[in-house]
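Tokens help. One example:
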Amino acid sequence: MTQSPPSGPNASDREQLGHEVEQARHELGRTVEALAAKADVKARAADRAAELKEQVGTRVSELSDDVRAAAHVVQEKLPAPPAPVRDMAGRGARSAREHSTLLFAAAGAAVAGWLLLRRRDRRRS
């Protein structure tokens, strides 16, 4: 028993109703997608982190430019150091470069000692 397609005013009502149902399904699908995107906390956090990283990078670049400009202004206003001071500073920098491993080891030992003393002081309190 097959039914013949409806004709008359009911046919257009059914087509209209079918169209409205299809439109409602489409809207529901978009709503579900939007809710799923909001519920995906990990993806939202990653997006926010990327956005903040970009903002920080831009701000760091701007501040670096400002610092360079300020350093240039200060350098122009300061008198040049005397030759003996420049020579001594140059020798110190060369010595630091040549003995960088030793300097890093000494700095590491100093930090480790400071941490041990701090830990001991906390235990006493």
Remarks:
- The longest helix spans residues 41-77.
- Residues 81-125 form one domain.
- The mean pLDDT is 87.
